Amino acid sequence: MIQTRIQQGLPQDARAIRQEVFMQEQGFQQEFDEVDRTAWHLVLYQEGEAVGCCRFFPADEPGSYTLGRLAVRRACRGRHYGERIVQEVEGWLRRHRVSRLVLSAQVQARPFYERLGYRASGEEYLDEHCPHIHMEKELPGVQGFLKQ
After folding, report:
1. Higher-confidence residue: 127 or 17?
2. At the top level of CATH, which class does the domain 2-138 belong to?
3. Annotated domain spans of the chain
4. What span, in angstroms and rounded, lies between the C-alpha atoms of 34 and 40?
5. Are residues 86 and 67 in contact, defined by beta-carbon separation less than 8 angstroms?
6. Are 52 and 44 in contact (CB under 8 A)?
7. pTM, whole model, 2 decimals?
8. Cβ-defined contacts of 110-115 (< 8 Å, 24+)
């Protein structure tokens, strides 16, 4: 059974997944920051085991949020958990009248986000020596709502 939990502030399960994926596996050093304290965090559970996570928070533009730190444990990849995480966040944001989601994707993850309807814009840039690209998506079904 798949379940998701969303909470404000960094839960221990999300911290553990991000340490495993971004720090141990990918070699990032600056994984945690002040945003973690106020951002919303989603953790995806399969049969009670935390298998993936992400965070999301208001972007600079009204009606927009930023998605980040999406991670799925290596042993759990290939089961569409990343897609499920993004869909859950998009649904939560639509219910909260957010019309646009932006993110900074690792270039190697660009095809994943494009399959989910995200468009790349601008030039590639480095974040901790890893190529990234700005991507965004207009969330359907939000037009006509008051924006946050």
Report:
1. 17
2. alpha beta
3. 2-138
4. 12
5. yes
6. yes
7. 0.92
8. 110/135, 112/82, 112/83, 113/86, 115/83
